[in-house]
Amino acid sequence: MLEQLFNQFVVAFREGIEASLIIMIVLMALKKRGERRLIRAAHIGIWTSIVACAIGGYLLGTIALVNNHGLEVILYSAAAITVLTMVFWMMKTGKTLKAGIDTRIASYHSREGIWPVIGIFLFVFFMISREGFEMVLLLLAFGSGIGGHYYVTAMLAGIGLAVAVSYALSRGILKINLGKFLQSTAFVLLFFVVQLIFDVWHEATEGGFIPDPSSQSLANFIDYVHDKVPVFSDIGLALFAVLVIYFFTQAMSDRRANRRAGVVGIAAKSMRKSKPAGV
Length: 279
Prior knowledge:
single chain; mainly alpha; 9 helices
């Protein structure tokens, strides 16, 4: 159970940090331009997408808790496809994510009327909803049998940490290469996709949708990966932890180095001011 809860925490943190970073980037770009009507539209889009994801997650959760092989095949398949497409999208746009959002907002800012407001609302709604539903599918796929307060607590803890880290990044308290961070952690999700493929295979054979493997060794391995040791998701979790430690250790090291450089610069400037003229 602890392993499943940790899965929930990590997945919620990974998806939550991407969603909250998008929110921060959008709001900061809009505040720079001072467009109150667009800021209001963005806030409505954010909260509407959160409510939609919460309702969708609850409804999908009630379905996932039903012991039905067909539904589990659909759930695992949907999660695998969603994550795979997100990974390819992030690999392509991760380094230019902030610039792309700024460009889109600038295009709305330059136009008059109701359409820019609707455009900002839809842009924010779909950006956040995509991350939210991806998180819901992953959470259900890797912890659909938990349910209850433990499941919700692990999820909220991951989202809460993601929001705190995103806030620190947006305020300059932490500085990391966001493009590399998002791309690296997205790549790690490929291990979850492999795990999901084995889960689909297992449930499909259990439900009689496809024939059992001709090799008993392969059948045993599929059962082992699905039931006893989620090998590939564990590898993904380990790599994710290493990446997070690496990026944030580097960020803290850079921050200390900048502080020392600032102190040295202030001291040097003070010495120059106090030096007698003509010396």
